[in-house]
TrEMBL record:
The organism of origin for this protein: Hymenobacter aranciens
Residue span(s) of domain Cyclic nucleotide-binding: 17-117
SMART domains in UniProt: cNMP
CDD domains, per database record: CAP_ED (cd00038)
Protein name per Swiss-Prot or TrEMBL: Crp/Fnr family transcriptional regulator
Signal peptide: none
């Protein structure tokens, strides 16, 4: 897995980094493989992995006060997988990140990432834009949970990440949407309320 093409393309999103700059930055990342069901991060650990995924899907989850496993996010090809609060604040994670299938991508550590942020204005601006997009997506998801019916949230997830449904058990999708497996089954059959 020596081809960094997807990573280089990702680094150029937003137009802040040129192709030669992206190629140079990409050399700071090392190849990372995560086997099916392996953990990239467990609760209680401090995250030190900023991973750009080329292949595979990861699931983020936490346990609620009743001990139920609740899916908090999915990461797939072309996305950065990390637990933001733990990674940037250097605090123990409350979440788990687990591979749903074999994942391949490119990793950089907290220390290496910060060295790049401090030494390269182009990368610092890029990093800021990635965090802003991530924060906006989280805010939109939170608002959708309040303002949109589950059927609409399901359809939006299906449109935005269709490949996710080929690799993810539906119980994780239901958990992510904040509904029961039965409700998701009804929505999928066309009986969900809009």
């Amino acid at each position: 897995m020596a081809d960094r093409a997807q990573l280089i393309q990702f680094l150029q999103t937003g137009g802040r980094i040129t192709q030669p700059q992206a190629e140079e930055i990409a050399q700071e990342f090392t190849a990372k493989t995560i086997g099916k069901n392996e953990f990239l991060l467990r609760a209680g650990q401090v995250s030190d992995d900023y991973v750009f995924l080329d292949q595979g899907f990861l699931r983020a989850f936490a346990y609620d006060i009743d001990g139920q496993d609740i899916t908090t996010g999915f990461y797939g090809p072309g996305q950065v997988a990390l637990e933001v609060a733990s990674f940037f604040q250097r605090t123990p994670s409350l979440e788990y990140l687990q591979a749903l299938n074999e994942c391949q991508g490119w990793r950089i550590s907290f220390t290496q990432l910060n060295e790049l942020f401090h030494s390269r204005n182009d990368f610092r601006d890029f990093g800021r834009s990635v965090l802003v997009r991530g924060f906006a997506a989280l805010k939109n998801r939170m608002l959708a949970t309040i303002t949109e019916p589950a059927a609409v949230r399901y359809e939006q997830l299906l449109r935005s990440q269709p490949a996710l449904f080929q690799h993810t058990p539906l119980k994780y999708v239901a958990s992510y949407l904040g509904i029961t497996d039965t409700s998701l089954s009804r929505i999928r059959k066309g009986g969900g309320k809009r």
